[in-house]
Specification:
Elements lengths: L3 E6 L4 E7 L6 H5 L4 E7 L3 H13 L3 E7 L8 H13 L7 E6 L1 H13 L5 E6 L2 H7 L4 E6 L2 E8 L4 E5 L8 H17 L2 H9 L1 H4 L7 H16 L16 H10 L6 H18 L5 H13 L11 H8 L11 E5 L5 E5 L3 H9 L12
Parallel strand pairs: 2-9, 3-4, 3-5, 5-6, 6-9
Antiparallel strand pairs: 1-2, 7-8, 10-11
């Protein structure tokens, strides 16, 4: 399989997102002159982390496997502090490197630890999930969760490189793979309508790593994110459009104590944002229905439980996209025409939520 390189430009320089099979061979060149490498990975992914360790050890690097809890349970201050202690005990210097192997939660954590150790050491991210490849590992945003919200503590710290080995995807649980599709479909709605067309043409194929258009969907989604984040590292401008569906999505995750799959929550959040745009006179009912039909065709949820609204409304108030007491939502003025809805009224928020209620909860992440 050929290798695709998608460049990301940031405030510091440029790094590549490398997509293909056998891309781990690029690790030594990214690590460069480091003496030691910390490989942070979920405890349940020891088998996937072993090839990473093997490549680095064969290249002569002293490696340290640092397993962490699976999923969002890793993104806590306690886990980060434990990793800082481990780095200190091993004498990690500014020339050494942190490698994050796993899903989006692990790469978020690894990037944050790299950003904060000695005020910043190099990180290399090896996402092993669809969500990690198309979203979490690209763009330089790192973070951990607190009881008050998701990713409220973090730093902007672009990696030295991102290696997406497509061979890891067939081993994913189906629900996890489908969850990652939400971020791909999001990229279609905000920037690249061809993604929506490809999913609609073959939703069954889109929902599997072996689908005819799988690689194209992944690369298109990465290119959307690479284009958006280039030149806007700190979310001061266009980058905010990547939060489409995330304001309500993050609130759902918090209410569910982070046991709810991110992609499932964002899927519901996108339908909610579409309903907000419709009620605000920005889009027609046909585009809202396209959200519902496209997302549901691949197995993603499009509604949530009615009684959760008071908790969700309160959770959105502390979302990091808010400005003071004002809620901000990324909405559409049309397909691939994202904009900001600033300070919608409580009445509008509640009415839009009623349009996405009536669901049973989809599978949790663990």
């Amino acid at each position: 399989m050929t290798v695709t390189r998608i460049g990301v430009n940031d405030a510091v320089g440029r790094y590549d997102v490398v997509v293909g099979s056998g891309v781990l061979s690029e690790l030594p060149s990214l690590v460069g002159g480091a003496a030691q490498v910390a490989v942070i990975h979920p405890r349940g992914l020891g088998e996937i982390a072993r090839p990473v360790l093997g490549v680095l050890e064969s290249a002569g690097y002293r490696t340290h496997a640092m397993p962490v809890p699976d999923g969002e349970a890793a993104k806590t201050a306690d886990v980060a502090a434990d990793l800082w202690s481990r780095l200190g005990q091993r004498g990690f210097t500014r020339s050494d490197v942190v490698v994050g192997v796993g899903g989006g939660a692990t790469t978020d954590l690894a990037g944050f630890v790299a950003a904060t150790w000695l005020r910043g050491v190099r990180s290399i991210l090896v996402p092993t999930t669809l969500l990690g490849m198309v979203d979490a590992a690209v763009g330089g945003k790192t973070g951990i969760n607190t009881p008050e919200g998701k990713n409220l503590v973090g730093a902007f710290h672009p990696p030295a490189g991102v290696l997406c080995d497509l061979a890891t995807l067939p081993g994913l649980p189906r629900a996890d793979y489908i969850g990652g599709l939400a971020e791909i479909i999001k990229a279609g709605f905000i920037d690249d309508p061809v993604i929506c067309d490809l999913v609609e043409k073959d939703p069954e194929g889109a929902a599997t790593p072996e689908g005819e258009h799988t690689r194209e969907l992944i690369e298109r989604a990465i290119r959307v994110k690479a284009d958006v984040v280039s030149g806007d590292l700190r979310e001061s401008g266009r980058r905010e459009i990547l939060n489409y569906g995330h304001t309500l999505g993050h609130a759902i995750e918090r209410v569910e104590n982070y046991t709810f799959r991110h992609g499932h929550a964002v899927s519901i959040g996108m339908v909610y944002a579409a309903e907000l745009a419709r009620l605000d006179g920005r889009v027609d009912a046909a585009l809202v229905q396209r959200h519902r039909s496209l997302l549901s065709s691949v197995g993603l949820p499009t509604s949530y439980v009615q009684e959760a609204w008071p908790q969700l409304h309160a959770a959105m108030a502390v979302d990091k996209k808010a400005r003071g007491a004002t809620l901000r939502f990324v909405v559409l003025d049309g397909l691939a025409r994202p904009t900001i809805l600033n300070g919608p009224t409580p009445e509008l928020l509640g009415k839009a939520y009623r349009a996405v209620t009536g669901a049973t909860r989809p599978p949790r992440s663990h």
